[in-house]
Amino acid sequence: MGAIKTVGVIGGGAWGTALALTAARAGREVRLWARDPGTVSDIRSKRQNPRYLPKITFDEELAATGSLDEVADADALLLVTPAQTTRAMLAALKKTGKVRGPVVLCAKGIEQSSGKLLSKVLAEELPGVEPGVLSGPSFADDVARGLPTAVTVAANSAKTALSLCEALQSPCFRPYASIDILGTQIGGALKNVLAIACGAVVGRKLGASAQAALTARGFAELSRLGTAMGAQGETLTGLSGLGDLVLTCSSSQSRNFSFGLRLGEGFMASELISAGGKLAEGAYSARVAVKLARKHDVEVPICETVAKMIDEDLTIDDALNTLMARPLKSETAGL
Ligand SMILES: NC(=O)C1=CN([C@@H]2O[C@H](COP(=O)(O)OP(=O)(O)OC[C@H]3O[C@@H](n4cnc5c(N)ncnc54)[C@H](O)[C@@H]3O)[C@@H](O)[C@H]2O)C=CC1
Ligand SMILES: O=C(CO)COP(=O)(O)O
């Protein structure tokens, strides 16, 4: 593929808008598709997305539109709608008949109905289109404000990964190229589930030691599943794995961590989910992550506990008892 001059961003939420700004700062011509007409008009007329990025006014002018046709033929597309909408969005893109560049998956999750990674969903819906994955420790608000951020950008070929990195690089945004598409997706999907557990521990005031233990044991789960599925070790310890896990497990800026905080404070998951509120992808990925782990014969007790808190309203105290009462395990091989 040649140099990327135009970037189409699909999704006018916090992350889609932040990535559109990133591509604009990198000198690309950017077209941003948003489902909500109010978002399109706010971005066009006020240079703001008040619903998803409150109190931020952009220096950059973004060409926002409600028409997928106007975006689909860009040199590269960033797909930035929630993970569970990926298949429908790809089908809608296919209908335009215009997709020609790589499609970079920016959502963090696993398809609930099939247990498939989003790259597999892409291969099924738009066969022949080059896949990409963008993931790593990056809060949309930080990125939109131009704070320094580094992420992993993976593609099947080094050439495509590098050209995507060049298309997005700016003084405040540093992408690292990778050819590990699979591994780059696993960290993003699992860290959201693990961040819910860390938030719950903090919400229940169980202390910083418990939070650190959970983050480290969470990383063991992410690594075991990633390794079993074929991820590269450097990916799991890199930005999209350990990097994003550390960020999300330690900050109430994370929506997944905040969802967990509420669970720790005594709210039931069913109450929180029925009240709507901000997107917490981990609530949708927990059960399917457990199923994926079973398929690969891997133990993921923290993810399993989060899945029970979400699907069965297991309380934080019962969750803690379940984890602490597990049979003793060795931390190292050979014991
Ligand atoms: N916000 C962040 O800091 C980051 C988010 N992500 C990931 O990006 C993905 C999107 O997250 P955000 O933009 O933050 O969420 P958001 O809640 O801010 O925005 C979601 C956007 O998707 C649109 N949307 C919802 N359902 C839709 C559907 N059925 N069809 C089409 N559009 C639909 C909404 O209108 C909204 O524009 C998630 O998977 C998230 O994990 C990744 C890195 C950072
Ligand atoms: O993925 C993110 C940071 O890397 C954003 O995390 P939350 O979706 O939990 O807010």
From TrEMBL:
Keyword set includes Lyase: no
Occurrences of domain Glycerol-3-phosphate dehydrogenase NAD-dependent C-terminal (ranges): 180-320
Catalyzed reactions: sn-glycerol 3-phosphate + NADP(+) = dihydroxyacetone phosphate + NADPH + H(+); sn-glycerol 3-phosphate + NAD(+) = dihydroxyacetone phosphate + NADH + H(+)
Annotated binding of sn-glycerol 3-phosphate, by residue: 108, 136, 138, 191, 244, 254-256
Pfam family, one: NAD_Gly3P_dh_C
Pathway: Membrane lipid metabolism; glycerophospholipid metabolism
Location(s), subcellular: Cytoplasm
SUPFAM superfamilies linked: 6-phosphogluconate dehydrogenase C-terminal domain-like, NAD(P)-binding Rossmann-fold domains
Lineage top rank: taxon: Bacteria
Entry-linked PANTHER family: GLYCEROL-3-PHOSPHATE DEHYDROGENASE, GLYCEROL-3-PHOSPHATE DEHYDROGENASE [NAD(+)] 2, CHLOROPLASTIC
Name of the protein this chain belongs to: Glycerol-3-phosphate dehydrogenase [NAD(P)+]
Origin species: Roseibium sediminicola
